[in-house]
Specification:
Layout: H1 2-12, H2 19-25, H3 29-34, H4 44-65, H5 71-81, H6 84-94, H7 104-108, H8 115-132, H9 135-145, H10 147-151, H11 161-169, E1 177-185, E2 192-199, E3 202-209, H12 212-227
Antiparallel strand pairs: 1-2, 2-3
Helix pairs in contact: 2-8, 4-5, 4-8, 6-8, 11-12
Length: 228
């Protein structure tokens, strides 16, 4: 925790008053489950809070930044900015992947590089920062970490994976692409969905995510990787 506190102070000027919030934000469920007797809190509730404040602040940014964009265009751009892959990238940029506490099994299976875990971690940190400071502190952090990349316009050029897959498969004619939820688990505030994508009835891949849309994107991404 000391190394994490040093990184936050030196890189972002952030000093937590309530260190328990910070520790909870960086504790994965797998670690908490392996230490049940210690009754350690994990970061799912903070992730829920962080997701909400992130959606709000990015929506506000896009509304003010692009006065001529339609609701649909802003929604698409926001989904590219806050998608799991993007948030995982921001976690790595901040060095957060070095500090998350994982269970032994999750650690061995490569959890420290898993986009789902790192994306959730980023949101949990935002939730902790909101509770320890205020929404202005979250905005300042996003201005340092996220907004500069958004300002480059790179997200405006990103096509979602479902669109890319459709374009790839339909180069030789019409193809019926279907996304089906094959599994759903977890509590209401932290659902995990598994979606299978098929083309003309043939299974291509499966993907997981915290929403059906995220799981569909993950499935499409895997299908693209396999096909290309």
């Amino acid at each position: 925790m000391e190394a994490l506190q040093h990184t936050l102070k030196e890189s972002f000027g952030i000093v937590f008053d309530d260190l328990s919030l910070l520790e909870t934000a960086f504790t994965h469920t797998s670690y908490a489950n392996e230490h049940r007797l210690l009754k350690i809190s994990h970061n799912e509730r903070l992730e829920f809070l962080g997701d909400a404040v992130l959606q709000l602040l990015i929506s506000q940014y896009l509304y003010l930044k692009y006065p001529t964009k339609t609701e649909g265009d802003m929604s698409k751009l926001r989904s590219m900015i806050v998608r799991e892959e993007s948030l995982a990238g921001f976690s790595k940029d901040c060095g957060f992947d070095q500090y998350i506490k994982l269970g032994k099994g999750e650690e061995k299976s490569g959890g420290r590089t898993r986009e789902t875990i790192l994306g959730d971690l980023f949101e949990a940190f935002l939730g902790a920062l909101l509770l320890d400071k205020d929404v202005d502190a979250v905005q300042t952090f996003l201005d340092q970490v996220m907004i500069p990349k958004v300002e480059t316009g790179s997200y405006e050029q990103v096509k979602d994976y479902k669109t890319q897959l459709q374009e790839l498969l339909q180069t030789k004619g019409e193809v019926t692409i279907v996304y089906t939820v094959v599994n759903e688990e977890g509590p209401a505030h932290a659902k995990q969905f598994e979606v299978e994508v098929t083309a003309d009835g043939q299974s291509l891949s499966k993907g997981q995510g915290r929403s059906k849309k995220m799981a569909e994107q993950a499935a499409a991404k895997k299908a693209l990787e396999q096909l290309t």
